[in-house]
């Protein structure tokens, strides 16, 4: 996918704040600090369009980024961050659930997992939830620049311990926002889903 333009559009915590122009949307989900906001920046080739941080819990609202004036990437607060209060976590959970369950414009979900680890219980719940909602899923194993060559072969095996990859409509990519590995394939997947 060729990126011609990208811009921050709007942040939302509830439905009446979502964009109203009826364009397709692709959302990102994953643990805090896994690299969701970084993936957006890498895809659109901007350093700081989506705010990133080495501190988990940076993204706290649904942030809509308009790309090529034709679709939105939706940055979503991460889960599994212990320092976020119970109350906030519940609010995030409900906000994400409302969005994923009701948004007709949503054409696919990118679930990011850290390629160095076996996916967590929360990752598994998100994966099964997306299946239940019948969303096309792209599993992105992030930060592969941090892996030694010998560890690379284990990434898929680690995934399979927790994710049933035989479901329909699931693709898997390894990825790095540092080396931009597989950014072309990421764009291709998005292109395909927003066209469906
Ligand atoms: P929340 O907003 O808290 O949910 O986090 P996030 O998933 O948006 O993570 P973010 O993109 O802010 O990245 C978290 C940290 O990981 C930052 O310090 C990034 O620089 C770093 N990071 C992200 N992607 C990569 C990657 O592919 N490789 C390496 N080495 N670091 C990365
Ligand atoms: Mg973020």
TrEMBL record:
Pfam families: MMR_HSR1. GO terms for molecular function: GTP binding; metal ion binding. PROSITE patterns: G_ENGB. Belongs to the TRAFAC class TrmE-Era-EngA-EngB-Septin-like GTPase superfamily. EngB GTPase family. Its cofactor is Mg(2+). HAMAP family: GTPase_EngB (MF_00321). Necessary for normal cell division and for the maintenance of normal septation. GO terms for biological process: division septum assembly. One of its GO terms (cellular component) is cytosol. InterPro entries: G_ENGB_dom (IPR030393), GTP-bd (IPR006073), GTP-bd_ribosome_bio_YsxC (IPR019987), P-loop_NTPase (IPR027417), Small_GTP-bd (IPR005225). This is Probable GTP-binding protein EngB. Residues 22-196 form the EngB-type G domain. It comes from the Bacteria. Gene3D superfamilies: P-loop containing nucleotide triphosphate hydrolases.
């Amino acid at each position: 996918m060729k990126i011609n333009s990208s811009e921050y559009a709007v942040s939302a915590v509830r439905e009446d704040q979502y964009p109203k122009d009826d364009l397709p949307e692709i959302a990102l989900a994953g643990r805090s600090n896994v690299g969701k906001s970084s993936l957006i920046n890498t895809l659109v080739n901007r350093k700081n369009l989506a705010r990133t941080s080495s501190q988990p819990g940076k993204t706290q609202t649904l942030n809509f980024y308009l790309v090529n004036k034709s679709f939105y990437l939706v940055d979503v607060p991460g889960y599994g961050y212990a320092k976020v209060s119970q109350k906030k976590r519940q609010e995030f959970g409900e906000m994400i659930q409302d969005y994923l369950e009701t948004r007709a414009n949503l054409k696919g979900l990118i679930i990011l997992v850290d390629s160095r680890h076996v996916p967590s219980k929360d990752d598994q719940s998100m994966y099964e939830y997306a299946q239940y909602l019948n969303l096309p899923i792209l599993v992105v194993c992030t930060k592969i620049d941090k892996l030694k060559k010998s560890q690379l072969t284990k990434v898929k095996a680690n995934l399979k311990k927790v994710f049933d990859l035989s479901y329909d409509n699931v693709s898997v990519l390894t990825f790095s926002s540092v080396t931009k590995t597989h950014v072309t394939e990421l764009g291709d997947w998005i292109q395909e889903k927003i066209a469906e």
